[in-house]
Design a protein that fits this description.
By secondary structure, this protein is mostly beta strands. It has 2 helices and 13 strands. The strands form 3 sheets. Strands 1-5-4-3-2 form a 5-stranded antiparallel β-sheet, with no helix packed on it.
Length: 198
């Protein structure tokens, strides 16, 4: 009788324990299946940019800290790769939780032959269209820094953690600059990624 009781308890507890701990880990990186590339602390835990070297894809994941002891996978954007003849690729993951604080994750990978050293997210020029040429430098970004988030490219990757309540059509412009501050490429709102200068 006791043996049946123990077997019944195990049958009930195993799925419960498995579902409780699936997606959990003792480190933030252990909650994802890809190779950890970059990470940033957030108000809820960590943002992790990861890649799948076998498939040549990358993604970004939101990882929550649970009692500062465990980390829990909480969503991701994956399977992004750079299209042929494009300067970079972008993937993002957003949430409106936490009043928008650290709610939008943006991962960017530059192409291997790209001269892009800095990525910016933001805009101070008003509404832009692909048919309207414009010029700017990284110095223009620095002179208007309240409108931009800037990251240096590390091993072809950048990771941004943005407040989702600041994420709008005018702000969501991604630009790539070379080491001298020259604009190389951009992605305007709802437009394709393009080279501006090679």
């Amino acid at each position: 009788m006791k043996k049946r009781y123990y077997i019944l308890v195990l049958i009930v507890l195993f799925p419960l324990i498995y579902s409780l701990f699936s997606g959990f880990g003792f480190t933030a990186a252990s909650t994802i299946t890809g190779k950890h590339v970059l990470s940033k602390d957030t108000v809820y835990g960590k943002a992790i940019l990861f890649e799948d070297p076998d498939l040549g894809t990358f993604g970004v994941a939101r990882i929550e800290s649970v009692f500062h002891l465990l980390y829990k996978y909480s969503g991701e954007s994956t399977d992004q790769s750079i299209e042929k003849d494009k300067p970079f690729a972008v993937t993002g993951f957003g949430t409106s939780e936490l009043d928008g604080k650290d709610g939008f994750l943006l991962a960017i990978k530059t192409s291997a032959n790209s001269s892009i050293q800095y990525i910016t997210v933001g805009n101070h020029l008003g509404r832009l269209h692909t048919s309207s040429p414009y010029s700017m430098t990284l110095d223009d970004v620095r002179a208007n820094q309240e409108y931009y988030d800037v990251e240096e490219v590390t091993n072809n990757y950048t990771l941004f953690v943005l407040d989702s309540n600041d994420h709008n059509r005018d702000k969501y412009i991604i630009r790539g600059f070379d080491s001298k501050g020259k604009l190389i490429a951009d992605k305007l709102w709802a437009a394709k990624i393009r080279y501006v200068n090679k």
